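Prompt: May I have another protein with tokenized structure?
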Amino acid sequence: MLIPSDLQIIAWIGGLIIAANALAMILFVLFSKLPESSLKENIRNIILELDKFADSMENIEKRSIAVHKISEILGWRKLFIPSALIGWIIDLEVAAIRKMQKKTNAPN
């Protein structure tokens, strides 16, 4: 049985963040290009959920809770990632969502 090293776990987390951003960008582009249809309505609902996430992460208290939960999850592996770094990643995700919303005129 292979036990992943801390470096492999960090690489997986980085890959997941990049994949999530790519998926979000695809959804935003599809939303802006598709004619009105049920698919566009489903994408709109996903975008609204992303917007709710971004809104909640802009709330300092909820952001602190999210950083704490992520730190706890990583703590089981005794993988120490500074809270400031986790907060920075959350801020980057929120900024990316806002930027995609602005570029594609998606609902806010």
In short: The mean pLDDT is 79.
